[in-house]
Specification:
124 residues, mainly beta, seven-stranded mixed β-sheet, four-stranded antiparallel β-sheet, 11 strands, 49% strand, globular
Length: 124
Amino acid sequence: QVLLVESGGASVQAGGSLRLSCAASGYTYSDYCMAWFRQAPGKEREGLARIWTGDGSIAYADSVKGRATISQDKAKKTVYLQMNSLKPEDTAMYYCASNPYCPGLYSPGLFRHWGQGTQVTVSS
């Protein structure tokens, strides 16, 4: 019943910025983990950032540290990923994922719920 819907992906020039959104519905408990991953064709899924909705605890992957900010609007059950200084290597399908607890970003298989993805394309 848990549903995650991503939005905000677009084609942008290198150095530009995007804000991705993930709206969640169907949870029966108030606190859960929300995370962002990305995957390029033929590549492994890569964790980017996650947030525990209970206390706002945040973790980032080194690949986006300093360029990305994850945040939440608890009332809207929506999580955002603000990405700045975008590079061509950021081009990928970006996915939102959730779980009752926070697995490590290195373990995408432990996240139970996934959105359909939103495409980010960065041109040089």
